[in-house]
Amino acid sequence: MGIRTGAQYIQGLKSRKPEVWLQGRKVTNLFDEPVFKQPILEIAKLYDMQHDPKYQERITHICEETGERVNNAFLVPKSYDDLMKRREVFEVFARATFGLMGRTPDFLNVVVTSMYYNSWFFEKYNKDWAVNIRNYYKYLRGNDLFLTHAIINPQNDRSKSSHEQKDIYTHLGAVKETPEGLVVRGAKMLATLAPITDEVIIYSFPGFKPGDERYALAFALPIDTPGLRIICREQMQDGTRSLFDHPLASRFEEMDALLVFDDVVVPWDRVFLYNNVEAANQLYPMTGAGQQPAHQSGVRGLIKLQFAVEVAMKLADSIGVDVYLNVQDQLGELIQSLESIRALLRTAEIEYTITEHGEALPAYIPLETIRGLLPTMYPRAIEVMQIVGAGGLLMSPTGADFVNEELREAIDHYYVGREGVSSFDRVSIFKLAWDLCGEAFGQRLLQYERYYTGDPIRKRAIFYNNYKRQHSLDLVDEALKVSVLEKELLTK
Ligand SMILES: Cc1cc2nc3c(=O)[nH]c(=O)nc-3n(C[C@H](O)[C@H](O)[C@H](O)COP(=O)(O)OP(=O)(O)OC[C@H]3O[C@@H](n4cnc5c(N)ncnc54)[C@H](O)[C@@H]3O)c2cc1C
Q1: Residue identifier of the C-alpha nearest atom 43 of ligand 1
Q2: Which band of pLDDT confidence, cut at 50, 70 and 90, is reported for residue 432?
Q3: Quick one: pLDDT at residue 401?
Q4: Deepest of 45, 396, 436, 483, by most Cβ within 10 A of its Cβ?
Q5: What separation in Å is there between the alpha carbon of 455 and the centre of ligand 1?
Q6: Contact, 296 vs 90, CB < 8 A?
Q7: What is the mean pLDDT of residues 78-107?
Q8: CATH 2.40.110.10: which residues of the chain?
Q9: pLDDT tens across 273-285, in order?
């Protein structure tokens, strides 16, 4: 089949009945559930872009193996040009969603593509796992599917490992083997967009200890597999708020969910790893599952930051406060953050390396630097937006006030901006800003940037240790040579 249309994606959703729980009730019709409807349509637009002549050549290619047209996220990059082809889809999808949807289909399709190309890793441990991941990639590519993933355990007692929790099946673990497949039980935390995806893939960050064998798992399943419960967090919008009042929150809510596996059978051909602590700890660093999607999140993060910076600038301009030195200083700082991320991303692409297996990898250090800096740069952009917008952020009238004839004159008069900025334009930009920096929707976007790729503190510590291992401290050694000479002189 190859690339799907938006209608085909929606048809796929309608054909399934996942067990989705939202605020205490089971959702029976996902498509018509207000909190999901607009996000489904936003994802459908991305699928449609694959057929739009304006984007098709940029974001898709003809698969050499099948002759079908497929998304560039399924391209195994073997050169700089391939990396740039793949970047195109990251950029087009991120621009279409202002970088506000982190888990668009390209994200996990890159993860599986990377696991597929590095199936040598799975083969080291078990030939069947390697066959399974290869077949799964082909299945995803051929059907253009949309995945969610859940890689961390719920926050129960973080001071203990999985097997030390009060109930050994609190964290997702294997229960028993059956001829049909592996039976799994327990929960995984935080699968973004789970209710509106086609499939879920489970794998983990490293950190397994001896004794954790039953939790050392990787597999994939259709999202409506019997026994899989999707428990959503509280919705941040109910689908009834207008596009004018909440121009972002009403479109881009990415629902997050806890996944509970109630003795779910994972067919053997969907098991990619099982009962092997060493393999589970190595999967993330060795298969590119960490580094390849960092390219997607770097591009998406750049666009999200650019959007936030532009909103802050337009906000300041609309009420004439960017004539002041302090405001210029803060906005200038944001632009410099943005340009730093842009430069790091280009460095990651230009300084790509080719692995011994022939895969092009964007450079680790600049990508990891982006991952380290965005968790502070994005919240800072939001803080500056709050400081610059000040009281006005809370004071916007609603669309209903605008259309009320009794109020219209007063609104036009008192909400007008600096010369040349109408009340409508001034209120519109303030509403955009409030969705980003005030609404619960905006707070989730901020928390996403802090944590979507793991705990930034532990990530930076790993980065430091890798950097130390890979770099000699040449300059210091050079400087110390003088001291060595001195030492010889002194000890003569
Ligand atoms: C909006 C959002 C969307 C997300 N989407 C997804 C998704 O789609 N799929 C997915 O799999 N995950 C997703 N994540 C989860 C993300 O991977 C985790 O939030 C992240 O890995 C941090 O884990 P945690 O939230 O369990 O925090 P914890 O690991 O529990 O950390 C909590 C605090 O305790 C400290 N801490 C905890 N353990 C240690 C330790 N061992 N050593 C030192 N300090 C420690 C941390 O520094 C932190 O301050 C998402 C997260 C967010 C916020």
Answers
A1: 458
A2: very high
A3: 94
A4: 436
A5: 5
A6: yes
A7: 97
A8: 6-286
A9: 999 999 999 999 9
- Find the 154 Cα to ligand 1 centroid distance in Å: 9
Query: In this structure, what token pair is assigned to residue 60?
Result: 């898709």
Name the nearest CA neighbour of 99 among 358, 277, 272, 311. Answer: 311
Give Rg (Cα) of the chain. 25
Ligand 1 centre and the CA of 444: distance in Å? 13
* Helix 291-318 / helix 105-117 crossing angle, nearest 10 deg: 160
Q: Of 254, 205, 206, 255, which is closest to residue 233 (Cα–Cα)? A: 255
Helical ranges in 211-290 per DSSP H: 277-286
Taking the domain 6-286, which CATH number applies? 2.40.110.10
> Looking at the chain, which residues constitute the CATH 1.20.140.10 domain(s)?
291-454
Mean pLDDT to the nearest integer, 57-76: 97
User: Residues 196-223: what's their mean pLDDT?
Assistant: 95
pLDDT band for position 241 (50/70/90)? confident
Residues 154, 169: Cα–Cα separation, whole Å: 11
Is residue 151 within 6 Å of ligand 1 at its C-beta? yes
Q: Which amino acid is at 487?
A: K
Residue with tokens 């899989």: 228
Q: What is the pLDDT of residue 185?
A: 98
491, pLDDT greater than 80: no
- Reply yes or no on domain 291-454 having CATH 1.10.510.10: no
**Both structure tokens of 376:** 């502070």
CA 326 remoteness from chain centre: 34
Could you tell me if 43 and 104 are in contact, meaning their C-beta atoms sit under 8 angstroms apart?
Answer: yes
**pLDDT on residue 58:** 97
Phi, psi of 334 (to 5 degrees): -65, -40
Token pair of 460, please? 């930076």
The count of residues in the chain is 492
Q: Is the pLDDT of residue 416 over 80?
A: yes
Task: Quote the mean pLDDT of the chain.
Answer: 95
Residue to mutate, 451, 457, 458, 462, ligand 1, most ligand atoms under 8 Å from C-beta: 451
pLDDT in tens, 291-335: 999 999 999 999 999 999 999 999 999 999 999 999 999 999 999
Instruction: Indicate whether 490 pLDDT > 80.
Output: no
Split at pLDDT 50, 70, 90, the class of 112 is: very high
User: H or E element: which one contains 201?
Assistant: strand 199-202
Separation of alpha carbons 316 and 312, rounded Å? 6
Max alpha carbon distance in the chain (Å)? 97
Exposed, middle or buried, 466 (CB in 10 Å: 0-12/13-18/19+)?
A: middle
CA distance 488 to 2: 71
